[in-house]
From TrEMBL:
Name of the protein this chain belongs to: HlyD family efflux transporter periplasmic adaptor subunit
PANTHER family: BLL5650 PROTEIN (PTHR32347:SF23), EFFLUX SYSTEM COMPONENT YKNX-RELATED (PTHR32347)
Occurrences of domain CzcB-like barrel-sandwich hybrid (ranges): 397-516
SUPFAM superfamilies found in the cross-reference section: GAF domain-like, HlyD-like secretion proteins
Sorted UniProt keywords: Coiled coil
Main location (coarse class): other
């Protein structure tokens, strides 16, 4: 099985680290001092690789390190230096190695870093020190100090390697982002491709860099570094396209000559070698441009020096960033008709080709819905705002000039026929009535006297004056009879609140009340201008009032008026309708007290039509007006 480039780099970094640890252990053991004859005779290093721990260094190579390996594991578990008796003539000393660059790692102590390894050394004791603990401690002290210093040196080397690796990674990322930014900054595919090949040629010191794009089953060269124009029929161009096809068919980079390391010997590079032999250059590499598993194109680099694995890995990561950006620019550069044709072809391929089950189910549902709407019919209705108005309103005016004495009803009160609504002040009228009655009595006495004298002329004049007084008395009696305002019929008081005008003066004919009947209403419908042509007298519909959303009141159109109203920037025509006196609907609503001024939404039935016509009527009307506005 072939390893990926990241896996190969990780193995190389691990091998380099192991070699450094082995060299450090050999130097440390060989140069160790021998205080009072005690010397280091054996050493072992236990090192962490991911989640596993492995012995990576043993000195000398032919020694048995089982005892020291156990000591190193104890040092790893304890996380501190240890001294252990390995035999009668030897002691073991161990010390942990920490990764100072990873203080935040799991298991790391604050300020000390994560545990990276453990070192264990065997110290042989001469016979003079055996059994003398104080002498042994004195002899081991310089060895432990030197081990601590050596471990510090090893930790510093690890930190330096980590720092160098981080800097290399940052430099590589910076180069990648710079190249990607340069490609993205170009507005067209051709300029972006030229930017890519020119920068690759400069960065990798290539003699020539070619970019090819997949067309069907073959790749065609689209751009060559340092060349504005080229002849596609040249043998070199054809050989370059063949090398690109070779890399795209394998979906991996094809490098000639192959770099050192595992995983390169099984790659086919015959076309790369043929291109190198034709041009006389010593190295050729072709890298595929992939969008997931879909091949987009390839890039071929030619130069004298061979490409190593690290350069190939850098090229692969760079092109992985730029492939999608180049494809987007290529698609955007296509003419609009071609874009539409390609998009249609893609959608048809998804609809009729393999896969995309959800897409197919959606298409079937839409086709079924379209067929249903084309064949099925329904009742077409026009929605209109409606307001309930009284068909008749009676205005109650002041019968004479006077003052209001009492207000017996207020707006909203239901009244019966003949029910008093208000009383006018009658005190002045009563006095005036007494005045004219006394005048009549005086005229009667005078008439008797003139009759006794036989004064016929005086009697005629007196008769005229008496008739005048009787007329004035009749007028006063009439006003007294009308001083109490009575309801003309059973209904509801629509307007007129006199409770705030008690004792106030009113003029004759001034409006005091408006009374409407309870059982005679008309509807005013505001029909949108675009649908007024479909409304006819005699059409029926249903009304739902905002105050009675559970009731549907039938109505019939009575009259189309020329009156218009503007609302929210649109014009609406006023249509008059009357409620149908249906026992089930109207009587039920009447029990809930229909009132003038109630508003709601009415739906006028205009007849049956196809559902697709009903649903698309507004869109079709808008398209017709737009086409007429622009093309006539």
């Amino acid at each position: 099985m072939q390893l990926g480039d990241s896996g190969t780099q990780a193995i190389a970094a691990w091998q380099q680290q192991v070699q450094g640890v082995q060299g450090w252990l050999a130097r440390h053991c060989e140069q160790a001092p021998r205080p009072e004859g005690a010397g280091v005779t054996q050493g072992v290093v236990l090192w962490r690789q991911g989640e596993q721990w492995q012995p990576v260094a043993l000195w000398p190579g032919q020694a048995d390190g089982a005892a020291l390996l156990s000591l190193s594991e104890e040092v790893r578990d304890a996380g501190r230096g240890l001294v252990s008796q390995l035999g009668e003539d030897s002691l073991g000393i161990g010390y942990p190695v920490r990764d100072l660059a990873s203080d935040e790692a799991e298991g790391a102590q604050p300020g000390k870093g994560a545990l990276l390894g453990a070192v264990a050394l065997r110290v042989m004791l001469p016979e003079a020190l055996r059994g003398r603990d104080s002498a042994v401690q004195t002899a081991l002290l310089p060895l432990m100090q030197r081990l601590e210093d050596g471990v510090a040196t090893l930790e510093r080397d690890v930190l330096q390697r980590s720092y160098r690796s981080g800097r290399q990674l940052q430099d590589r990322l910076s180069q990648h982002l710079s190249l990607l930014a340069a490609v993205l900054a170009e507005p067209r595919f051709a300029s972006a491709a030229m930017q890519l090949v020119s920068r690759l040629a400069s960065h990798f010191e290539a003699e020539r860099v070619s970019l090819g794009w997949r067309r069907g089953s073959r790749t065609r060269v689209e751009q060559i570094s340092h060349s504005a124009q080229f002849n596609r029929k040249m043998n070199r161009i054809r050989a370059t396209e063949t090398a690109m096809d070779e890399a795209l068919d394998q979906r991996i980079s094809a490098v000639w000559p192959a770099p050192d390391g595992p995983g390169w010997e099984h790659r086919v590079v015959r076309a790369q070698a043929a291109l190198g032999g034709m041009t006389g250059l010593g190295a050729v590499v072709s890298l595929p441009l992939l969008d997931g598993a879909e091949p987009l194109g390839a890039v071929t680099l030619e130069r004298d020096m061979p490409f190593d694995a690290e350069e190939v890995a850098a090229l692969e990561s760079l092109l992985a960033l730029c492939a999608r950006a180049l494809e987007e620019k290529r698609r955007n550069d296509r003419p609009l008709p071609l874009k539409m044709a390609v998009a249609t072809s893609e959608q048809l391929g998804r609809l009729f080709g393999p896969g995309f089950l959800g897409y197919k189910l959606t298409g079937l549902v839409l086709a079924g819905l379209l067929a249903f709407s084309w064949l099925a019919t329904g009742e077409e209705r026009i929605a209109a705002d409606a307001i309930l108005e009284s068909r008749e309103q009676r205005v109650m005016t002041a019968p004479f000039r006077g003052y209001i004495d009492a207000a017996l009803v207020r707006p909203g009160d239901r009244v019966e026929a003949g029910q008093p609504l208000a009383d006018m002040e009658t005190r002045d009228l009563l006095l005036e009535r007494l005045q004219w009655q006394s005048e009549l009595a005086k005229f009667e006495r005078q008439e008797q006297e003139m009759r006794a004298r036989g004064d016929r002329a005086g009697m005629n004049v007196l008769a005229a004056q008496r008739d005048q007084a009787q007329a004035r008395l009749a007028l006063v009696d009439s006003r007294l009879e009308r001083a109490t305002l009575l309801a003309p019929f059973a209904g509801v008081v629509v307007s007129g609140d006199l409770t705030q005008r008690l004792g106030g003066a009113v003029e004759q004919g001034e409006e005091l009340f408006r009374v409407s009947p309870l059982d005679d209403f008309r509807l005013e419908l505001e029909v949108p201008e675009r649908r007024i042509d479909d409304v006819r007298v005699g059409q029926r519909g249903e009304l739902v009032l905002a105050a009675m959303t559970g009731e549907r009141l039938p109505f019939v159109i009575e009259r189309l008026t020329p009156q218009t109203r503007s609302s929210d920037g649109s014009t609406r025509f006023v249509v008059e309708a009357s409620l149908v006196r249906d026992a089930e609907s109207i009587d039920g609503a009447a029990r809930r007290e229909l009132r003038p001024g109630l508003q709601g939404v009415a739906r006028i039935e205009t007849g049956e039509n196809k559902l697709i016509v009903i649903w698309t009527r507004e869109l079709v009307d808008w398209l017709r007006l737009t086409l007429w506005r622009w093309w006539g």
